[in-house]
Design goal:
Order of helices and strands: HEHEEEHEHEHHEHHH
Number of strands: 7
Oligomer: single chain
Strand order of the largest sheet: 3-2-1-4-5-7-6
Shape: globular
Structural class: alpha/beta
Length: 255
């Protein structure tokens, strides 16, 4: 994963929605599984893990690239490790719950099977979401429908369980991308241990959340307005191309 886009500003921009989403979602997850340990692969500044801690789970591990500024972390630094998520990761232990939310689409397609293998090695229950086609976002290289990821997990003996989306679909305090994409994957050989999850097996449909659709349409409308005449188009591209330069001068002034 490239590190040039995942700046402090990037995490500041997504932080509020991520925190609210975690605060609303984790109590619902606890209705299905009560983990004593949680690992978050692609944790960013560990917003979700900080909420797990507030819900009493202290055995946590955050994993992400070395681009994460550790002074932004919302958990203790010793509970975070940096790793190249494009490469297979092996830890000397497993966790009760493995998380990876809106991360897999940031990796190159060639890394998808390796990334899923890493998740499957870390535990028997995985809480997973990944962007669908046309969802949009920063450095999305591999947006896919659920069937794509389901096939990789199946290769390691894991099946999908769509028990969260319907329950959280209308909760506006949760980011629409999470509500659209969140699934459990449970290892087939231990599924009897998690009846609250596995007794509700059903086909996973590629459902598009209205919130995601409305966001994308607003972006298209913005571009259409910006490009409706050559004059507007010139202004749009001048603003876009000079933004990094203006940001650099702004940082120098503050320094």
């Amino acid at each position: 994963m490239t590190n040039t886009a995942y700046t402090k500003t990037y995490y500041n921009n997504i932080g509020g929605g991520s925190l609210s989403s975690a605060q609303e979602t984790i109590p619902v997850i606890l209705e299905y599984i009560s983990p004593a340990s949680v690992v978050d692969v692609g944790c960013g500044i560990a917003t979700w893990l900080s909420v797990w801690e507030k819900n009493g789970v202290t055995d946590i591990q955050g994993i992400d690239g070395d681009y994460v500024q550790q002074d932004q972390l919302l958990i203790a630094r010793e509970k975070f490790m940096d790793a190249d998520l494009d490469k297979e990761l092996s830890l000397p232990r497993q966790f009760d719950l493995v998380m990876s939310l809106e991360v897999a689409e940031h990796l190159q397609p060639a890394s998808a099977p390796v990334f899923v293998r890493t998740l499957c090695q870390l535990g028997d229950v995985i809480f997973f979401s990944a962007a669908m086609p046309c969802q949009g976002g920063t450095l999305h290289y591999n947006e896919q429908y659920p069937a794509y990821w389901i096939a990789f997990f199946a290769g390691h003996g894991f099946s999908p369980y769509d028990v969260l989306r319907e329950k959280l679909w209308l909760n506006s305090k949760i980011d629409a991308s999470y509500r659209q994409n969140m699934l459990f994957f449970v290892k087939d050989s231990v599924k009897e241990k998690y009846p609250a999850i596995t007794r509700q097996q059903k086909q996973v449909l590629p459902l598009i959340h209205p919130g995601v659709l409305e966001y994308r349409m607003s972006q298209y409308d913005k571009y259409e307005r910006s490009l409706r005449t050559p004059f507007h188009a010139a202004g749009f591209f001048i603003t876009k191309w000079t933004k990094p330069i203006r940001a650099l001068f702004s940082r120098r002034k503050k320094a």
